[in-house]
Design goal:
By secondary structure, the protein is of the alpha/beta class. It has a single domain, classed as 3-Layer(aba) Sandwich (Rossmann fold), CATH 3.40.50.1110. 50% of the residues lie in helices and 11% in strands. It is built from 11 helices and 5 strands, in the order ααβααβαβααβααβαα. Strands 2-1-3-4-5 form a 5-stranded parallel β-sheet, with helices on both faces. Helix 4 crosses helix 11 and helix 7 packs parallel to helix 9. The radius of gyration is 17 Å and the shape is globular.
């Protein structure tokens, strides 16, 4: 394996280990709230909002990579952020039947995820799709035009199926962010979200805020504590996603 590919693979593993899953606690992890401007955005989710208000059953599909699958927590879906999102939404909306289906597969590019839409997304007829992507493309330096084309193709396919969508951008870690050029991929995701009026969950900025303010220390984490850190971060992401959904459905 070429040295550059080995380096990229190791960096991807490092990202996965840092951005983990939710701890087995009933309440949100302490201190992981984020500023309103990182959550509140113009795009809304009217169909999901209507179903919440009328107490109709809701199915949400979370499709993405390693962090969606819960790889940092031992590939345990019960610890991944889709699980904690479901728990948070059920707690906030006790009169609604809410199911979040995890369709995370580690190591996939954006284009590979789009190829799974028919079987893993459309088949269950969800009200909302949460699409977490971009990390693998950025780590491997995939062509930005190809990345953008795959992103737009996926959003167009969701639109044709009349499924509301929420994009989730890349993870943040000060070490990997200094080595990997995330900016072009973040920019492409922001432009695609603006063009298609899609809510973009700013995971990169949220995790940077947690890092900068000392909520989570992502630097020099001992190997024996990485899983615990991962669980807390996943839990906080689940709660922040629930905040975003609540805002977008008002």
């Amino acid at each position: 394996m070429p040295h550059s590919l080995v380096t990229c693979t190791r960096l991807l593993v490092a990202i996965v280990l840092i951005a983990g899953a939710g701890a087995a606690r009933a309440a949100p992890a302490p201190g992981c709230a984020v500023p309103h401007e990182l959550i509140e955005d113009d795009p809304t989710l009217p169909k999901l909002g209507a179903r919440l208000r009328s107490h109709q059953p809701i199915t949400i599909v979370a499709i993405g990579g390693a962090s969606t699958a819960g790889r940092a927590a031992g590939n345990d879906e019960a610890s991944a952020y889709p699980h904690w999102l479901e728990a948070a939404l059920r707690r906030r909306h006790p009169g609604a039947s809410i199911t979040v289906i995890n369709r995370g597969v580690a190591g996939e590019t954006t284009a590979a995820m789009v190829e799974r839409f028919a079987a893993d997304v459309f088949a269950v007829r969800p009200t909302l799709v949460i699409w977490e992507t971009g990390t693998v493309d950025a780590v491997h330096g995939n062509d930005i035009e190809n990345f953008t084309a795959a992103l737009e193709a996926g959003l167009a396919a969701l639109h044709r199926q009349r499924i509301e969508a929420m994009l989730v951008d890349m993870q943040y870690n000060p070490g990997t962010a200094s080595v990997i050029d995330f900016a072009p991929y973040l920019g492409a995701m922001h432009r695609a979200a603006d063009l298609d009026n899609i809510y973009l969950f700013k995971r990169f900025d949220i995790m940077k805020y947690w890092s900068d303010t000392g909520v989570f220390d992502f630097v020099d984490v001992p190997k024996g504590k990485r899983a615990a850190l991962a669980r807390d971060v996943y839990k906080c992401l689940g709660e922040s996603l629930a905040d975003a959904i609540d805002f977008a459905t008002r």
